[in-house]
């Protein structure tokens, strides 16, 4: 009987935890749900191979970027959902690349995706980002990098809202929100 009660309590706890977590599981249909796994595999991912107009050596990048910016922008890292700077931000402004300052996204194109990462349905202009095939983590995804410095910003998925139906799932640490009136 005692064992039965203990088992029931344990089972209920598991069910409660699962239920509480369910919305985020459902929201993260794609690779995001594997974020716990990412750190493990990042070391074997390739560094960015293309050449871009704004280039710096690895040592120079380390000097100007914070450790998390460097890990994401230069090593294709992914930050944790819901605990990053802009996922829930409704502030007006322009999101620029944290590496080189190139304009990337407008807050007017940001929407609540429920994934825990800042999400946009379009970049300011298609030429500001480059799409690369990403075959890491045993799946094929479309990686988004800054067209000026090649910094990894995030991925794009086709489950976004109208009119593009795209979801640019970005890392907050790869972006910097700036006042649109102060940009050239
Ligand atoms: Zn950049």
Secondary-structure map:
Elements: H1 2-27, H2 35-42, H3 58-64, H4 67-74, E1 94-97, E2 103-106, E3 110-111, E4 119-120, E5 129-134, E6 141-146, E7 152-157, E8 167-170, E9 175-178
Antiparallel strand pairs: 1-2, 1-9, 3-4, 4-8, 5-6, 6-7, 7-8
Zinc ion binds at residues 97, 99-100, 102, 146, 148-149, 151.
Sheet with the most strands, sense and barrel status: 6 strands, antiparallel
Order of helices and strands: HHHHEEEEEEEEE
Give the averaged pLDDT, no decimals. Answer: 82
Determine the strand fraction and express it as a percent band: 15-25%
Strands across the major sheet, in which order? 3-4-8-7-6-5
Which characteristics define this entry?
single chain; 184 residues; alpha+beta; Metal Binding Protein, Guanine Nucleotide Exchange Factor, Chain A; 6-stranded antiparallel beta sheet; 3-stranded antiparallel beta sheet; 9 strands; 27% helix; binds zinc ion
